[in-house]
Amino acid sequence: xxxxxxxxxxEILSILGEDVNRNGLIDTPKRAAKAMEFLTDGYHKxxxxxxxxxxxxxxxxxxxxxxxxxxxxxxxxxxxxFIGRCHIAYLPQGKVLGLxxxxxxxxxxxxxxxxxxxxxxxxADAVQEVTGAAGVGxxxxxxxxxxxxxxxxKQSSSMITSVMLGSLRTSDVTRNEFLRLIxx
Length: 184
Description:
This protein has eight helices and seven strands, in the order αααββββαβαβαβαα. By secondary structure, the chain is an alpha+beta fold. The protein has two domains: 2-39, Orthogonal Bundle (GTP Cyclohydrolase I, Chain A, domain 1), CATH 1.10.286; 50-181, 2-Layer Sandwich (GTP Cyclohydrolase I, domain 2), CATH 3.30.1130.10. It is elongated, with a radius of gyration of 20 Å.
């Protein structure tokens, strides 16, 4: 795949009017191809692989929150970056997920061409599926280069999306606890 991507990047640069043989661009198609493969490596992973069995018995049913998980993704409309933070809450029912696995789940889905709304839902559904929690909440904050660098060019704009499942959706008290604990 890398060789094919390299050829396409070389062609794109030529179409833009660049000389792909000039000193600064000689290896650019190869580097761009390698970067794109890295930025989209989420297509080659599954939830089962990233969780890797890190689900543990636990005698707790109190809310667990992992907040400020940094992420970056590429918007599916312009292939420009959007970056931000993800906050995840869940109410365990006898099982907890290893802490680092939350970040791995976020990264797996973020490293695909995405929209933030879909990314938020994919993460919530994955945490729900893996943990069997009584409730899951995911809030994502993002700054979108497609809105900042082009189009309307609004530098201070940001987006917040949320998905609440189970008791985090049905219970105002539980949802408000999550929002209060993350400072929202």
